[in-house]
Design brief:
Elements: H1 2-5, E1 16-25, E2 34-43, E3 46-54, H2 57-75
Antiparallel strand pairs: 1-2, 2-3
Length: about 80
């Protein structure tokens, strides 16, 4: 996603994924369990963390990832943000 957005938002070139963690919440519910994804991102200026929660691991990951990119864009003063879906 970052590479696709770099042409419009060149400040994303310095951003990188530092850590990705998945936790299953309410594990007794089997495939209906909620999944929490924790993403730690960073750039030369600092690090930040975002969280996504969903019954679908891909959706939880997307939520955490878009929040991370949006945070970077807001910190760099970009006017637009990445849509949630």
């Amino acid at each position: 996603m970052r590479f696709a957005l770099e042409r419009v938002y060149p400040q994303l070139k310095e951003m990188e994924l530092r850590d990705y963690k998945v936790r299953i919440l309410e594990g007794r519910q089997g495939t209906n369990s909620r999944t929490r994804v924790l993403i730690e991102s960073g750039d030369p200026h600092g690090m930040w963390g975002t969280v996504g929660v969903s019954e679908n691991i891909i959706e939880a990951s997307w939520e955490a990832l878009t929040d991370s990119v949006n945070y970077k864009l807001l910190q760099s003063g970009a006017a637009a943000t990445v849509p949630a879906k």
